[in-house]
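Q: I'm building a small set of examples for a reading group on sequence design. Run inverse folding on the following structure and report the sequence directly after it, with nothing in between.
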């Protein structure tokens, strides 16, 4: 086995899944995160079947299914509330798993942290990687507390804003997608299943509005819109209500549920795709540090956890680490490129409704269909 002692930098989906999968293969793992404590705040996520397949393999699927809300189809609405279509969602994790679940991000994060701790992963919070040095058969880290340590491998799982990425010789940087998104968690009625509504025309600034149940009585709402907030003097919750005001049917209930106390957040959506190598010597970047997409087919976290499991499998086989990292990267690139291309195409069509030949349903279906095969 090429690696026995690994430092993981970043404790999101990527870093925690890599930590679990390595520890299950008898690797000693230390994980650092710059957050001083794990925060319980956060939004809902759609977790697709291919991510659930990874969660099955790392032994957390029962806990994940227990906190999530299964969804196997999506309702498309016209803005006035009429149903446009009911679309079955491809079962990207195979027929034994739900097509998707909706869940609160902190619930999933807690499950992964608990599993990592059970497996003996040492988690140190409030620490950043300041610098590293490749030293032949090892890599040496310097952390923000001034300590230096030696590892067989350092994994950069810092997310899209990774500061270590350029130090690996990676020239690509995150870029604007042209989209912004509001997200909120609010109550739902029992009969609501996941849905997306499209405006008749771009009159209020929302490209589309959607919701996904995350448990028996809550859902998360998103409003896809322009990347800049209009200067209209409205507070966040008032702006979300304004953006939703032309959407009816189930969206009337959701809009009315939003109050000044609703936890919500606005962000500009960025993307990155690093097509060149993801490693330099004994330091490798995974997950959103090297690929992040607008969440239009909800594959972000799924691609991250696929990376992490496959990576752990490669580097714990017999052989030379350089060959293993190169083979791992070569295997991931075509699959991730399919997700990136589809997501960017969909982002373009969101911003340019009425584009001749636009066919989001076909692009989405083909992109997800391609993921049913094992990664
Ligand atoms: C609006 C939006 C909606 C989304 N919706 C979905 C969805 O429905 N389904 C889905 O599958 N995906 C979705 N995604 C994508 C998903 O959230 C990401 O793919 C996933 O969270 C990325 O995980 P990560 O671990 O690579 O990075 P992150 O979650 O960003 O984690 C990085 C971690 O590294 C830490 N860190 C960073 N730098 C350092 C450092 N120098 N030292 C130490 N620690 C550091 C950070 O504190 C953080 O904990 C969405 C993304 C966005 C923006």
């Amino acid at each position: 086995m090429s690696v026995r002692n690994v430092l993981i930098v970043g404790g999101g989906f990527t870093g925690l899944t890599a930590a679990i999968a390595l520890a299950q293969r008898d690797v000693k793992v230390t994980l650092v995160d710059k957050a001083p404590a794990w925060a319980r705040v956060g939004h809902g996520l759609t977790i697709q079947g291919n991510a659930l397949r990874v969660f099955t393999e790392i032994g957390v699927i029962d806990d994940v299914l227990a906190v999530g809300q299964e969804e196997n189809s999506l309702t498309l609405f016209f803005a006035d509330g009429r149903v446009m279509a009911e679309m079955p969602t491809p079962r990207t994790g195979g027929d034994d798993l739900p097509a998707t679940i909706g869940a609160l991000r902190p619930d999933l994060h807690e499950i992964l942290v608990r599993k990592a701790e059970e497996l003996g992963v040492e988690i140190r919070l409030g620490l950043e990687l300041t610098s590293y040095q490749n030293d032949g058969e090892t890599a040496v880290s310097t952390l923000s507390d001034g300590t230096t340590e030696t590892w067989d491998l350092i994994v950069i799982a810092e997310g899209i804003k990774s500061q270590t990425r350029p130090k690996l010789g990676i020239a690509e940087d995150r870029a604007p997608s042209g989209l912004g998104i509001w997200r909120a968690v609010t109550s739902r009625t029992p009969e609501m299943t996941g849905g997306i509504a499209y405006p008749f025309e771009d009159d209020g600034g929302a490209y589309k509005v959607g919701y996904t149940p995350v448990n028996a009585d809550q859902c998360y709402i998103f409003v896809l819109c322009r990347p800049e907030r209009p200067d209209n003097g409205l507070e966040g919750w008032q702006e979300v209500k304004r953006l939703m005001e032309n959407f009816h049917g189930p969206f009337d209930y959701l809009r009315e549920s939003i109050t000044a106390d609703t936890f919500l957040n606005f962000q500009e959506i960025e993307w990155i795709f690093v097509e060149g190598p993801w490693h330099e010597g004994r330091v490798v970047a995974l997950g959103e540090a090297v690929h992040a997409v607008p969440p239009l087919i909800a594959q972000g976290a799924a691609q991250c956890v696929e990376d992490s499991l496959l990576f752990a499998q490669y580097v714990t086989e017999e052989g030379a680490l350089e060959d293993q990292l190169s083979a791992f990267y070569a295997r991931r690139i075509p699959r991730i490129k399919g997700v990136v291309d589809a997501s960017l195409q969909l982002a373009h069509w969101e911003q340019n409704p009425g584009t001749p030949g636009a066919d989001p349903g076909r692009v989405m279906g083909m992109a997800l269909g391609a993921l049913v095969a094992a990664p």
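The first strand starts at residue 5 and ends at 9.
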